[in-house]
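In this supplementary section we document a worked example of the pipeline. Step one takes a protein sequence of length 113 as its only input; no multiple sequence alignment statistics are reported here. Step two produces a three-dimensional model, which step three serialises into structure tokens for compact storage. The input and output of this example are shown verbatim.
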Amino acid sequence: MKIFIICSVRQATIEYSKKLYSYAHRLEQAGHEVHLPPRDTDQEALGIDICRQNKQAIKEADEVHIFYSSQSQGTYFDLGMAFMEGKRIKILQNETYGIGKSFPRMLVEWEKE
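The serialised model returned by step three reads:
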């Protein structure tokens, strides 16, 4: 299976990055093809080109795995592309939410579909 991981890139701490790379490695050891943006998207490219690279990788993915952070603008952008493509998602990290509508709640609703 091809998996795209949506995650923070610019705001990633060392601990967070270790978690991402470890997760991607476990998926690859299980035989999956993984696109991890900090590793597989040219982060030196122009912003529009980063978005195009991720768009293509999301389009080719069978599933999108999410380490959600409301502080990451790129996460919102990639989630919108995944939603538009009708991708199945798996939430690996989410933020807590209360009563009422919220983006973290919507992710849970999307994952259940």
